[in-house]
Specification:
The protein is an alpha/beta fold. It has a single domain (7-217), classed as Alpha-Beta Barrel (TIM Barrel), CATH 3.20.20. It has helices spanning 20-29, 52-58, 79-84, 100-109, 155-169, 186-192, 201-204, 209-217; strands at 7-10, 34-40, 65-71, 89-93, 113-118, 136-140, 174-178, 196-199. The protein has an 8-stranded parallel beta sheet. α4 (100-109) links the parallel β4 and β5. The protein is globular, with a radius of gyration of 16 Å. The structure holds D-xylitol-5-phosphate and zinc ion. Residues 11, 13-14, 36, 38, 69, 142, 144-149, 178-181, 198-202 line the site of D-xylitol-5-phosphate.
Length: 218
């Protein structure tokens, strides 16, 4: 999935859940590229968000690319159902699954793009064996579970390391950065190697969301 410009993926975790249809519908108008869907199970992370039904119901509200980020234990059990619910890409966590190859295969065989996410304290090198299969590498720059956290110092080096691995072994994969991205740090994150920027609070908390998207893209 080679990209010519930085992709902005607002996370609906920071949207108003009581008005989710309109929140998602509005994302094209403000210039967003993807819709980032944070799925949490209260096991892998200490928070619960939403699942298949939400994704299925908001799918008709937007033509944008649906980027599902699963923060759930043993995602192999459920990835196919996220594809069926309308996700264009399904990412899951390295730390949450024993059978990473098998899980990636299920997503790919279902005709969907796949991504692997790593926590801030996981060695970037762990992604190496899977690079041949990945469409996306998700570098977490906060510990997953909540929006509105601070970008962890030292994450730029991790992004650069992931980019070096991507350039060598998976030139078609994109690098996505998630957690604490804002209009002040977006440029340095992109410079370090990010192709896709997830932004929750920086978009949904902005006085003017369209301006925020534009500034994030740089
Ligand atoms: C964190 C989620 C993120 C989060 C980003 O567990 O994966 O996508 O919602 O929110 P901000 O941009 O507010 O840090
Ligand atoms: Zn996320």
């Amino acid at each position: 999935m080679p990209m010519s410009k930085t992709i902005i993926a607002p996370s609906i975790l920071s949207a108003n859940f009581a008005d989710m249809g309109n929140e998602v519908k509005n994302l094209s108008a403000i210039g967003a590229d993807w819709v980032h869907l944070d799925v949490m199970d209260g096991m892998f992370v200490p928070n619960l968000t939403f699942g298949f039904k939400m994704i299925k119901d908001i799918r008709p509200m937007s033509k944008l690319f649906f980027d599902a980020h699963l923060m759930i234990a043993q995602p192999k059990r459920y990835v196919k159902r996220f594809v069926e619910s309308g996700a264009d890409l399904v990412s899951f966590h390295y730390e949450a699954e024993y059978d990473i190859d098998g899980t990636l295969d299920i997503i790919k065989n279902a005709g969907c793009k796949c991504g692997l996410a790593i926590n801030p304290d996981t060695d970037v090198d762990v992604i190496k064996p899977y690079l041949g299969k990945l469409d996306l590498i998700l570098i977490m720059t906060v510990f997953p579970g909540f929006g509105g956290q601070k970008f962890i110092d030292g994450s730029l080096e991790r992004i650069a390391k992931a980019k070096a691995l991507r350039d060598e072994y998976a030139p078609n994969a994109v690098i996505e950065v998630d957690g604490g991205v804002n209009t002040d740090n977006a440029q340095s994150i992109t410079k370090a190697g990010a192709d896709v920027l997830v932004a929750g609070n920086a978009v949904f908390g902005a006085a003017d969301r369209a301006v925020a998207v534009k500034q994030l893209r740089g």
